[in-house]
Fold:
Amino acid sequence: MQIKHLVTIAAVTCALMVGACACSGRSSGGASATTTPAAHTSQAVSLPAFSADSAYAAVAAQVAMGPRNPGSDAIKRCGEWIISELGRYGADTVIVQRTTEPDPMNPSRKVPLVNIIGCFNPDAAKRLIVAAHYDTRPVADEDADESKRDKPIPGANDGGSGVGVMLELARLMGLQTPGVGVDLLFVDLEDSGTSGDDASWCRGSQYFASHLPYKSAAERPQAAVVLDMVGAPGARFHREYFSQQANPALVDRVWASARAAGCASRFPDQLGGPILDDHLPLINAGIPAIDIVESRSDATGTFPETWHTHADDMSSVDRSTLGAVGRTMVHFIYNYR
Ligand SMILES: [Zn+2]
Structure:
């Protein structure tokens, strides 16, 4: 309740910087997080090599489809493509949740909501979720050019990057089965929300959280990691505030994975801003979840400069950043016991 309350007080926007925009546009997160050294990783496991090129190509493929805003032909094609890619990479099961919901930006019309879950190694004793949204924002409300604010964004970093990393993880898991079960959750309708209306964001993950595809408590995932805006050049990922509050041990574990992957400089042991994102519905559903999201950009203090603008094109995505996040996730997944 406290988490929700905090969000309600200060929510601003999608992958929403809470407490950031109401005043200065700067993140309030600045204090160092208290961390416990975590030794969850083992060097004994051979790790598949994450290809940043492949992840980048998967981002480019999405952007080439055009903006994937709800109700568009492009998001329909993108969803079909994700399902096809999961099949090509050898997902054991692909679950598709389909419904329709009022368009959060235009409630008089309904739009499809399609969540896609690619399950790898489903019979394993333990299970993880890795999640990202694949819809993109229908408006460019942060764009400097007011005349273009009503047009949908390319969504290369915001939308495309998390999906790109996840599809490369799918390729790797098809080649080398991890010891843990992994559900790759591609959620819809994350980014059509309105400032001040918390429930208008993250509709896909809200739907997933209320329609969990797990028959028993034993099947429920032990942890979930959300990837959002994980591709900007030079991006660093601070310990997102709500993640740190709700699941500090899981944050420790992922940040330790980053160190083990040689990516410590990308994952500072410092607190980031509080972000309304797809991890919150999962936390509220009892699944320990955290968010890897750029919330203290060196340039803006908050999100990347291209956030919710037309500049969120392929120039706002960098292979090096995708690779750092991808290698971190490989360490986390393949060493999970
Ligand atoms: Zn967004």
About this structure: The radius of gyration is 18 Å. The pocket of zinc ion is lined by residues 14-15, 137, 158, 191, 308 (CB under 6 Å).
